[in-house]
Write a structure and sequence with these properties.
Blueprint (H helix, E strand, L loop, with lengths): L1 E6 L2 H10 L6 E6 L2 H4 L3 E2 L7 H11 L3 E4 L2 H6 L1 H6 L5 E2 L3 H8 L1 H10 L7 E4 L2 H9 L7 E5 L8 E4 L2 H12 L10 E4 L5 E11 L4 E5 L4 E2 L2 E3 L3 E4 L4 E4 L6 H21 L4 E12 L2 E8 L6 H8 L4 H10 L13 E8 L14 E2 L5 E4 L2 E4 L2 E4 L3 E9 L2 H10 L4 E2 L11 H8 L9
Parallel strand pairs: 1-2, 1-4, 2-3, 4-5
Antiparallel strand pairs: 6-9, 7-8, 7-9, 10-11, 10-16, 12-15, 13-14, 15-18, 16-17, 18-23, 19-24, 20-23, 21-22
Helix pairs in contact: 1-11, 6-7, 8-9
Length: 433
Amino acid sequence: MKILLLGSGGREHALALKLKERSGVDLVSAPGSDALAELGARVAMDAADPKAVAGWCAANRPDLVVIGPEAPLVAGVADAVRALGIPVFGHGAATARLEGSKAFAKDFMERHDLPTAASVTVGDWASGEAVIRNWAWGLPIVLKADGLAAGKGVVLAETEAEALDTLRAFLDGAFGEASKTVVLEAPLLGMELSLHVLVDVDADHASYLMLPACQDHKRIFEGDKGPNTGGMGVFGPIPFVRAEDTERMRKELVEPTVRGLQKDGLVGRGVLFLGVMWTAEGPKLLEYNCRFGDPETQVLMQLLDEDLAALLLAVAKGSLDQNAVKVKPGCAITVVLAAEGYPDRPKTGVPIEIKAPKCAIIHAGTKKVEGRWTVNGGRVLNLATSAPTLAEARKKAEGDLAEVAWPGMQARKDIGLKALQHAEAGKTVQDRW
């Protein structure tokens, strides 16, 4: 099977490693990375350019195209390739608006009665200022840039003054056109988790598969301190999320989403990543992403006990007929190794020393220079592994931190620790987090 994988980061490297577990997979990546080049051919191509990707596909006729990042989805790459009769794992532009526009997503949630935070969407200073000065839902006020902002377009304003300053910066183009419309949201308190769902949905049928819920750690420093990042580590499944909790998320979040897609005439041919906050009232939806999370993918690929190529092809062709996804027993974890200065000013070009780690090494931001791996991004590598329990998985990952090093490397040693302590205390999702 010839597969074109679009993307270049840790998510794509994790997907590629899983895809290559199947013999006979001929993998091509675009734009790819030096790490992905070790798994197959690499094509110098703008993955978010529908015309360029469709042109390559027309000439090379892959059996499947797998789209990793959000930008190509929002740009309509899947539509352009699908028009050639080539199966694509990735949503069309209409469905990708669930990630590409926060305002569109909030309207979808409210229209289909999904539990979510109260919100107001504004597009000018006068109306936004009036909303903030008359805010009725308490602090912090969550401000979200409507469009794609590389994961940086969300601010939790602790004061009215900070909310007004943030609104001004957004409307003045802090993120270009992406922040010319702003969603103001009430705060949600509780435990945040990541829920991925493979969706094969059109007007005639609706199939989906829920993957194990995971938990990301966004802050740069241990104890959830410091600035937000793209994610410093993930584990899954969450040990105190019971079968009945998963069933509740299915009934209250997943099924209404799937029904909403059908009612709105939106076709699903990929994955939906539901950002969930489990509050005192139960699970509430924070946001939709229309692609696999990063670094959640690194954990999910450790857990999945499936032929990934066949599974993604079934979704792409609209022939998903499984009732449940097969996962390995135990728990998986990934610890992100980040560059000095990340997330603000990562220092690149630094040589990396890799000794003999037992964990899988997932490349997120590396470059090979004269045969040696160097730092080429903010989040550089991931240590990914699995074990019978979260405690054992944590121990394996922590033991490998000494096996990979470079000057200024940042890594959290507490990935999953809070959840482990919560579980060992006999607490559930209903208890205070």
